[in-house]
């Protein structure tokens, strides 16, 4: 995913992404904690997107908050 992909998220989703990315980036400093040849940054991006997708879903060209029954 690109920086533009993150910028297209609603502000709240960007906050979720940033918090998850920073946490995962610290957690995956050791290559032993990552899968295969994945870099620390790649692992952190995957975790961050997963965190966003727990609360948001893509609807057309936009990201929207999932309805409360889906959370």
TrEMBL record:
It comes from the Bacteria. Pfam families: ChaB. This is ChaB family protein. It comes from Candidatus Bealeia paramacronuclearis.
